[in-house]
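your task:
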Amino acid sequence: MEDIQNLKDSRNIDIDKVGVKGLRYPITVMDRDMGEQKTVAEINMYVNLPRYYKGTHMSRFVEILNEYSNHISPRSFSDILQEMKDRLNAESAHMEVEFPYFIKKNAPVSGASGLMEYRCKFIGSLNSGSDMVIIISVPVTTLCPCSKEISDYGAHNQRGEVRLQVRFKKFVWIEDLITLVERCASSEVYPVLKREDEKYVTEHAYDKPMFVEDIVRDIAVELTKDSNITWFAVESENFESIHNHNAYAYVEKHKK
């Protein structure tokens, strides 16, 4: 049968990215404590297409994913991207893998356990050089320092979300990034809390009031000291409990 994709195209226009988008697929990712974790990801895979080809071979993206689905990690990303370039005769390849990641967490006093969900994303590209970014979204609790200062008793708190992006020299564990973020909040968020745990979390947050500005600065300080991290971007957003708007802060840094 004739290969339509390989026919010549006369419009003389290069395509930067062409491929498959929004593909939901079961994958296995590395887990620091359990060795591996099965989850379901939403995946985008692209290559460039030179001006002289009519189309790319979409089925090859899924074939490559089938081969690597049992070991997707920052370590395997460059191999997958190289395979995309080779199989599709491309000069550049790009892949995005977004998935829920679950960590077993124990409540701080009672020890009641449950699974905490974090949103994670790997973004990688390979052309003349390689690039890899890990993105995590971490729910946190914050307590307002201003509210605590001006109130005779109590202070307003709220749930927030920290989104951290990093580039790195060597391997980095998802769990380590999550722990770093949670340490810089007023309190962690837990999947299960008994009454004694709620008391602890409430009082712990009260003793550690944080603006969104405090959170991004504290995280930036820690990442700046980490020689493995070459670039980071951190943003913190509070879903305010007494305002009709959210509070937001962002820091980005390229390290030499």
About this structure: Strands lie at 15-31, 35-49, 93-106, 113-126, 130-143, 157-168, 187-188, 229-238, 247-254. The mean pLDDT is 92. DSSP finds six helices and nine strands in the chain. The CA atoms of residues 100 and 141 lie 20 Å apart.
